[in-house]
């Protein structure tokens, strides 16, 4: 029996169509068994991570001490623009005593503007590896639960005994007194003479009542 050439050609065309349809469904269909790909981080997220500021070089909190206690604080410096603070050395502070005094007891006729004089005796010691300059005048603030921070510095008692305001080489220490003008007994006195622009007080002394 002879097969028509037209019948053979028709069968070939039909078979080719089946193959093409199969290939089309395979390429367009979902790849269920293919490996999962993780989404790349978005550009805004990458930019935010790159622009996030680095932490300050100073990470220690200001010590808060009472009479008879000792704390350690950082001393550092910034660049010429007051930025890029870095710690250069460490100081130790001990609150030796805090005595409330009258003007006569500190040999002055000036009455305290805030209300009360207190003679605060401190020991400062350089426990780091580089010199540290300490300047307390104009850098001592007093506050309590009722009164916001006020400048407590005075010139009373200056020249009596060792001066705390000096440059401390590694290992050096000074024990000296400051006569401060505070609102009332109690509260706390803060030294705010540090150079770290992102930090509050350098050290805090709680006064007795």
From TrEMBL:
It comes from the Bacteria. Gene3D superfamilies: 2.60.40.1240. The keyword Transmembrane helix does not apply. InterPro entries: DUF4352 (IPR029051), Immunoprotect_excell_Ig-like (IPR029050). Pfam families: DUF4352. Residues 26-63 are annotated as: Disordered. Keywords: Signal. Residues 35-63 have a biased composition (Low complexity). Residues 89-183 form the DUF4352 domain. This is DUF4352 domain-containing protein.
């Amino acid at each position: 029996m002879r097969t028509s050439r037209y019948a053979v050609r028709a069968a070939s065309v039909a078979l080719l169509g089946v193959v093409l349809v199969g290939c089309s469904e395979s390429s367009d269909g979902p790849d269920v068994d293919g490996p999962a790909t993780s989404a790349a981080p978005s550009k805004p997220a990458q930019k935010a991570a790159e622009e996030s500021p680095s932490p300050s070089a100073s990470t220690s909190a200001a010590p808060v001490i009472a009479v008879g206690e000792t704390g350690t604080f950082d001393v550092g410096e910034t660049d010429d623009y007051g930025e890029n603070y870095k710690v250069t050395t460490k100081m130790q502070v001990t609150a030796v005593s805090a005595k409330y005094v009258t003007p006569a007891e500190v040999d002055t006729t000036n009455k305290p503007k805030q209300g009360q004089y207190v003679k605060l005796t401190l020991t400062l010691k350089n426990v780091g590896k580089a010199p540290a300059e300490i300047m307390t005048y104009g850098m001592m603030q007093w506050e309590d639960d009722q009164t916001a921070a006020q400048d407590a510095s005075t010139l009373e008692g200056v020249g009596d005994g060792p001066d705390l305001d000096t440059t401390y080489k590694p290992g050096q220490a000074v024990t000296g007194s400051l006569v401060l003008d505070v609102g009332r007994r109690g509260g706390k006195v803060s030294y705010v003479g540090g150079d770290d622009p992102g930090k509050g007080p350098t050290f805090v002394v709680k006064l007795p009542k």
